[in-house]
Amino acid sequence: MCFFKQNIPVYDDVNDAFRTVKLDRTKDSHNSGENLVFVGVMTANMYLNTRAKAVYETWGKNLPGKIAFFTSETSIAPANLPVIPLPGVDDSYPPQKKSFMMLKYIADHYAQHFEYFMRADDDVYVRTDRLEKFLRSVNSTNPHFIGQAGKGNQDEFGHLALKDDENFCMGGPGIIMSRATLLKVAPHVRDCLKNLRSTHEDVEVGRCVRKYAEVPCTWSYEMQSILYHNGSGTEAFTGPLKQREVHRAITLHPIKNHTHLYRLHTYLQGLEIRTNEAKLVHLIRELVKTSEETRLSTPRLNDPVNGIFLDHLGMESTLQKWNPALESEVLTWDFVSRAVFHLSDANPRHRPTSGVNEGLEDVTRDVMEIINRVSKERGRVIDFKEVLYGYMRWNPTFALEYILDMLLLYRKYRGKKMTVSVRRHAYIQIPFGPLRIHEYESISDEEDPDSTLGIQNIVQVVVKNSLKDFENLQYQVPQRDISEKRNPKKINFILPLAGRFASFQRFMDDFRRICLEGEENVQLFVISFRPSSTEEDTSENVEALISSLQLDYPHITMSVIQTNISFTRAMALELGARQCADSDLMLFIDVDMTFTSAALDRIRLHTVKNRQVYYPVVFSEFNMQDLGESRPSSYDHTLIDEDVGYWRAFGFGIVSIYKCDLQLAGGLDTSILGWGREDVDLFEKVLKSGIKIFRAADPGLIHIFHTVDCDKNLEPSQYDMCQGTLYSTYGAVQTLTKTILANPDMLRDS
């Protein structure tokens, strides 16, 4: 290896050094609590306006000490940023000279004013509150070299001139030295630069510290989580931040994109607010408890003038905060296991939502943190394994409550060592924080509209500026252009049919009124199958009705495709799709559906060729006859009410899709015979194809009730689907409950 002589500059401008970091020369670690640590951040000229600025505007201003950014001699320092250009240093990589010169500068100018000194990169985030707590727990008079110990990666192992018992502190997550260590190393910077054994500056700093301060980097497994390095590279900390590593660490590295540094800072500020609100709750509870024990009146903490209310936070933590007087006031618990059972949902059993899972993760993480706070004193660590089951409920007045059965791993490392699995019940409350009320004056209706014109203009500008970034989003809300509004896209109705002529007549009445008389741009293809043996063959009547309408409306294509096979919905839809061109918009619909013109508009809007398929959630009517009620012939089927029907959230039979997108998804599985399952199969194919699915409740699509007969010859999965649909039409839960309470004999064995 070739070595060359380094020119070591001498620094004399002491006043400038203090002025740059705004340090009072009379202050030191003995007479000021703000002189705990000095942080030197290594950066380059190209990062001064991005990474360096982000560091200074986030965690850099909250240090219990001072911070400075060390860069090359020719760097141009932005205003209000404490930058120290190092003479004779450039921004070349690896920054070995920059690193040693920074340590020399810090020792020459700031060594007597701080207890600790930290070398940091410009892509690290430091949780300053935790750093202060950590450093104040360590005796600063001893020589310390604190960091995440390393010996090189797999490719470097054995090539860094390190002995088996030697290590170095990884530079990325940060390196901390006590004053004693820095003062022992600084005089020997010239020798360390002359004897470089590798291209890694953190390895060489570690070698220099070990040689002259005679102290190694901290051999501690915990340092991997305290000074945390994420090995994902540029993807680190770009995803969800609600992770155990983020919550536990003092430093987080690397954050390559400086905008993510602001994002991380905002998230951690939110955690700090949450922590402070939890402390506030505990303090107010202690205040109330002390007042009761001393028989003194509890001070009023509410501040109605400023809209802040705190008195409710003093309520004792108990599962019996409130006793309901009526049955309707009882707050029910949701059961949580692999599925969630929720009493008030239309579908009581469903998968845990992302909100439920996230809430459980938050709760278990906080509980484990509380449990392990005394782990060192008790010589044990408890690890979380899983939640076996639990209950949760939301009390909107007081708190979110959990009862959890948790599987834990108990590790005892003091005395008789052991590792054993244990189960524990946890009763948890997450109280709501302070109540804040903001009032805004409303503009009177009688006020002169001209007097609000200026406000409206300001609001318009603010809204436009707020929305201008939406154009950069990958997904855009589909909108129709002017030509499409004048000439709406043609909708090709594809209607499978087998018998049921009365229902077909009703459907065609709606089709005539809405589409034909309303001059909608549509086509209709009826795929007629051979009816079941119990039904009359009305195929000729179907053709006659269509022919009659075709004479009245010759400009609208309406045709019947006859098939002499038993009803198969998948085959019917496939035959209908064959009548359309690749660029045609198709609507798969059933004979029991009624629709509105507004529904057709939404079908055109939400179905986008090559991009999006529309799966509307239709409203399905209940069977009123079994409950002793009936609908009159003039009944308005567009009436939507929870007593007359329900949203069929698990139905996928009604869909609007372009033919080219149907082909891209793989088409329909015509091997599925009879009723059901073909819709779910197509839905899954569309999901896998990558085409977006737009799904929403559509009040203009109503499924009219009809009796359901489930053929026992169907495949088990199809038969179960049919039975599920049959049971769903019995009636609303409250209606069924009233019926059973009024007729208790219904529950008795016959």
From TrEMBL:
A Pfam match: Galactosyl_T
GO molecular function: glucuronosyl-N-acetylgalactosaminyl-proteoglycan 4-beta-N-acetylgalactosaminyltransferase activity
Keyword flag Iron: no
EC primary class: transferase
Localization, UniProt: Golgi apparatus, Golgi stack membrane
InterPro entries membership: Chond_GalNAc, CS_glycosyltransferase, Glyco_trans_31, Nucleotide-diphossugar_trans
Membrane association type: Single-pass type II membrane protein
Presence of keyword Oxidoreductase: no
Entry GO CC: Golgi cisterna membrane
Membrane-traversing stretches: none
Domain of life according to the entry: Eukaryota
Keywords noted in UniProt: Glycoprotein, Glycosyltransferase, Golgi apparatus, Membrane, Signal-anchor, Transferase, Transmembrane, Transmembrane helix
Protein EC: 2.4.1.-
First-listed, main subcellular location of the protein, grouped into a coarse class: Golgi
Family: Belongs to the chondroitin N-acetylgalactosaminyltransferase family.
Stated name of the protein: Hexosyltransferase
Organism: Halocaridina rubra (Hawaiian red shrimp)
